[in-house]
């Protein structure tokens, strides 16, 4: 790897407060910074996506046309993913999904205790995002509930995809087979896992690190456009965080019944299977790593948390170990 490394501190001065903070950031509280990045990444994803779901649901109830559409929702979630990876990915590694974190733990040796912290932060990001969205849309959500109550359909519609709570907790259309709902979720999540793993494959010459967020985002948008109607969670952090928010607002009735387990857990074995398929049939360690991917890896590996040791003095293997154990 190159030894001509220039850090931001070498070319740009920083205030004393932040200089002192960085000494702790890379040692005692580094775990907190990473967890905040995971929290914020899921917050971006959910804030953009659910923020587009709410008007899609309350608009028809209040007879307001043009507030949202399935196309807009797909694009909103895609934008949230791009923001999450672009802004937060370099700090935490960019998991933003408990299924991805668990899969990295199984296939790449990601530390188990660190995985637990990441998952808690991810779910909390989805939860806080949903609560804030509810506050921002509170007046119109309340108005839509009053309209449903006046029509005598509030109890039957509230906890469905067409009810106000359906923007936060995820529910199925009454009458759908849970077996087919599970199949829809499982196959779609395998599809997403294959796209994610293929996009972060360092030997993929067609998907550079700069392009990967957009490819992953488009995959999620395509999943929403094609398979959200039969019920799709795609990310346990979005589902569990949103469901906890719905229960905070509307009580235990918002739990989601038997579908809740499908929405919260299916992505985990599906992602593991998708990654296993990619590792078995598509990953090739004999391939050459393209220059764009090498540069991306160098940037991360040269951010070595080695007190008293210059980055240029740390070997490639030492840097990899430092980054892995950080």
UniProtKB/TrEMBL annotation:
KW Transport (keyword) present: yes
Does the keyword field hold Electron transport?
Answer: no
Pfam families per the UniProt record, alphabetical = MIP
- Mostly located where? membrane
Q: Where in the cell is it found?
A: Membrane
Q: Cross-referenced PROSITE patterns, in alphabetical order?
A: MIP (PS00221)
Q: How does it sit in the membrane?
A: Multi-pass membrane protein
User: Which sequence ranges are marked TM in the entry?
Assistant: 31-50, 70-94, 115-137, 157-174, 181-200, 212-234, 255-277
Q: Which family does it belong to?
A: Belongs to the MIP/aquaporin (TC 1.A.8) family.
- Supply the name of the protein: Aquaporin 2
């Amino acid at each position: 790897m190159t030894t001509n490394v220039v850090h931001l501190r070498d070319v740009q001065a920083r205030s004393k407060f932040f200089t002192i903070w960085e000494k702790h950031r890379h040692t005692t509280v580094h775990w907190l910074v990473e967890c905040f990045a995971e929290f914020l990444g899921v917050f971006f994803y959910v804030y953009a996506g659910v923020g587009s779901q709410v008007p899609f649901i309350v608009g028809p109830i209040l007879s307001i046309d043009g507030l949202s559409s399935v196309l807009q929702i797909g694009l909103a979630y895609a934008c949230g993913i791009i923001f999450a990876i672009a802004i937060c990915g370099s700090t935490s590694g960019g998991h933003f999904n408990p299924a991805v974190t668990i899969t990295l733990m199984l296939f790449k040796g990601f530390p188990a205790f660190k995985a637990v912290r990441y998952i808690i932060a991810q779910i909390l990001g989805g939860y806080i995002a949903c609560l804030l969205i509810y506050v921002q849309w509170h007046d119109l959500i309340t108005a839509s509930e009053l309209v449903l109550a006046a029509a005598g359909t509030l109890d039957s519609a509230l906890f469905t995809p067409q009810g106000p709570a359906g923007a936060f907790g995820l529910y199925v259309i009454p009458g759908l087979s849970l077996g087919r709902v599970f199949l829809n979720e499982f196959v779609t999540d395998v599809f997403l896992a294959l796209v994610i793993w293929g996009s972060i494959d360092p030997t993929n010459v067609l998907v550079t690190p700069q392009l990967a967020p957009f490819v992953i985002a488009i995959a999620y948008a395509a999943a929403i456009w094609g398979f959200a109607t039969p019920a799709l969670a795609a990310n346990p952090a979005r589902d569990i965080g949103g469901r906890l928010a719905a229960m905070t607002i509307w009580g235990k009735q918002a739990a989601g019944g038997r579908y809740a387990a499908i929405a919260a857990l299916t992505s985990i074995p599906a992602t593991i299977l998708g990654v296993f398929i990619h590792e078995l049939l598509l990953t090739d360690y004999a391939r050459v790593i393209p220059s764009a991917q090498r540069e991306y890896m160098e940037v991360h590996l040269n951010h070595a948390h080695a007190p008293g040791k210059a980055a240029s003095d740390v070997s490639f293997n030492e840097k990899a170990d430092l980054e892995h154990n950080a």
